[in-house]
Specification:
The chain has 106 residues and is an alpha+beta fold. It has one domain (4-105). 42% of the residues lie in helices and 22% in strands. Strand 1 (32-40) and strand 2 form a beta hairpin. It is globular.
């Protein structure tokens, strides 16, 4: 089982990889930062935003349509999410598809 700081580290690593990928096309030196976190039984959802927007309020730097990063507390897996549905929809899908440890032993 992961702790929240361990899960945050995984989310920050993912954001660094996203930044490196997008940086190739934009030349942007600012990265992305976590702006909020919510805890769920399955793990933590990390919401992020462009660092320049957070720092300056420049609406031109604001991200839109970015899905939260959902980290599974059991093993640190990054679980897919999206923006088509509320986050709870994706959490329910993961919960339905992945048995709990009690269910796996039965």
């Amino acid at each position: 089982m992961l702790t929240e700081p361990e899960a945050r580290g995984i989310a920050e690593e993912r954001l660094a990889r996203i930044h490196e990928t997008t940086r190739q096309y934009t030349g942007d030196d600012d990265g992305f930062v976590i702006v909020d976190v919510e805890e769920y039984p399955i793990g933590w959802a990390y919401y992020f935003q462009h660092a320049r927007y957070v720092r300056t309020g420049d609406i031109g730097a604001m991200l839109g349509g970015n899905a939260p990063i959902l980290i599974d507390r059991r093993d640190g897996t990054i679980l897919p999410t999206g923006t088509a549905y509320p986050l709870e929809h994706y959490i329910n899908e993961h919960t339905r598809l992945v048995p709990t440890s009690d269910e796996a032993r039965a």
